[in-house]
Design brief:
The complex is a heterodimer of chains A (about 110) and B (about 120). With about 110 residues, chain A is mainly β. Chain A has no helices and eleven strands. Chain B is mainly β and about 120 residues long. Chain B is built from no helices and eleven strands. Chain B has strands at about 5, 10-15, 20-25, 30-40, 40-50, 55, 65, 75-80, 85-95, 105, 110-115. In chain B, the strands form two sheets. In chain B, strands 2, 4, 5, 6, 9, 10 and 11 form a seven-stranded mixed beta sheet that branches. The radius of gyration of chain B is 14 Å and the shape is globular. The chains are: A mainly beta (about 110), B mainly beta (about 120). At the A-B interface, strand 4, strand 5, strand 9 and strand 10 of A face strand 4, strand 5, strand 9 and strand 10 of B.
Chain lengths: ~110, ~120
C-alpha cells in the first residue's frame, strides 16, 4: 500500500465548476500537507500548505485536512481553463527514522474546458 | 535570482552507461531530494538528504547513487544497474521540517533522461 494515495483521474470539468481533489495517507507520522500544481514538462509549484486539521483558504483554493481520518482535500472554486494541470498532494514525515521524507501521491490530471 | 537549477534539461544515454544529473540550489536550504516521475506514477522518492555528508534512501533507490559534499549541490548518478532509467527526474530542496512554516519544497524544472 502506498503511503499517500491519490486518484489519478483524469478529471474533466466545465469552466466555473467546483473541483474537489482528494488524497488519503496511512502514516501517522505525516504532520505537514501540501498541494502542488504541475504544468506539462515543468517542475511542480506549491499551491497550498497546511499543518493542522481544518480548512485553509487562498483565493479560489481551499485545502482541507482531517487527521482523524487521514484525509486531505483541495477545492478549486470557479475553475478556469488555466487551472488545467496535474495536482499532486504531498505529506512530510515529522518523526522517526524517516524524518524529513516528503512523499507524493500519484497526481490527478485536471482539465477545465471552456 | 534564488532557485534550483537542474542540468541538463534533456539527456540521452546508451544502455550500460552511468550518467550524472546535476542539481544546484542557492536558497541556503538544508534538505534536498531527488524524485522520479513516470506517467501515472506520480513522484517517487529516490534519495533525500537533510544535511551535508548525509543522505537516506527513498522508495526506489536501487540503481541510483548520490553525494552531498556541499550544501548547495546534490548530484544524482543513474547507474547501469538501473533497469528502466528513462524518466523525468526532479530535484527539490527545502528548509528542514522542524518548523511548520518552513517545509515548502521548491522544485527544479527537471531533467528528461532517455536511454537509447
Amino acid at each position: 500500500q502506498k503511503e499517500v494515495e491519490q486518484d489519478p483521474g483524469p478529471l474533466s470539468v466545465p469552466e466555473g465548476a467546483i473541483v474537489s481533489l482528494n488524497c488519503t495517507y496511512s502514516n501517522s507520522a505525516f504532520q505537514y500537507f501540501m498541494w502542488y500544481r504541475q504544468y506539462s514538462r515543468k517542475g511542480p509549484e506549491l499551491l497550498m500548505y497546511t499543518y493542522s486539521s481544518g480548512n485553509k483558504e487562498d483565493g479560489r483554493f481551499t485545502a482541507q485536512v482531517d487527521k482523524s481520518s487521514k484525509y486531505i482535500s483541495l477545492f478549486i472554486r470557479d475553475s478556469q481553463p488555466s487551472d488545467s494541470a496535474t495536482y499532486l498532494c504531498a505529506s512530510l514525515n515529522a518523526g522517526g527514522t524517516s524524518y524529513g521524507k516528503l512523499t507524493f501521491g500519484q497526481g490527478t490530471i485536471l482539465t477545465v474546458h471552456p | 535570482d534564488g532557485g534550483i537549477t537542474q542540468s541538463p534539461k534533456y539527456l540521452f544515454r546508451k544502455e550500460g552507461q552511468n550518467v550524472t544529473l546535476s542539481c544546484e540550489q542557492n536558497l541556503n536550504h538544508d534538505a534536498m531530494y531527488w524524485y522520479r516521475q513516470d506517467p501515472g506514477q506520480g513522484l517517487r522518492l529516490i534519495y533525500y538528504s537533510q544535511i551535508v555528508n548525509d543522505f537516506q534512501k527513498g522508495d526506489i533507490a536501487e540503481g541510483y547513487s548520490v553525494s552531498r559534499e556541499k550544501k548547495e549541490s546534490f548530484p544524482l548518478t543513474v547507474t547501469s544497474a538501473q533497469k528502466n532509467p528513462t524518466a523525468f527526474y526532479l530535484c527539490a530542496s527545502s528548509i528542514t521540517g522542524s518548523r511548520p512554516t518552513n517545509t515548502e519544497a521548491f522544485f527544479g524544472q527537471g531533467t528528461r533522461l532517455t536511454v537509447v
